[in-house]
């Protein structure tokens, strides 16, 4: 007899807070990396690109956070992704 994996847990509040807070941190990190990689683009254009990139990235992360099995997994994965992205940002900044 096989055991079924548990269904997606219903801790909506924890998942929502992970998407809201860590999703925004992750979106800021991604936009920072894009800003560092596009230094040849004029500042006026680059600033608009980076500013308008935050919202769609954040919304994609925020919408996909409900696919995690639990809120703790959402916090763990988004926290690790945020640390990785911000580490990459500071590494690019140092170069």
Give a written overview of the molecule.
This protein has 95 residues and is mostly helical. The chain has one domain (13-94). It contains three helices and no strands. It has helices spanning 12-37, 43-64, 71-94. Helix 1 runs antiparallel to helix 2 (43-64) and helix 1 (12-37) packs parallel to helix 3. The radius of gyration is 16 Å and the shape is elongated. The termini are far apart. The relative contact order is 0.21. The mean pLDDT is 91.
Specify the helix fraction band: over 70%
What's the gyration radius in Å? Answer: 16 Å
Distance between the termini: 56 Å
Quaternary state of the chains: single chain
> Count of DSSP helices?
3
On the 0 to 100 scale, the average pLDDT is 91
| Structure class | mainly alpha
**Proportion of residues in β-strands:** under 5%
Tell me about the biggest sheet? none
Report low-confidence residues grouped into runs of 5 or more.
none
Could you say which overall geometry the principal axes of the C-alpha atoms support? elongated
Number of individual domains? 1
Q: SSE string, helix = H, strand = E?
A: HHH
Number of strands: 0
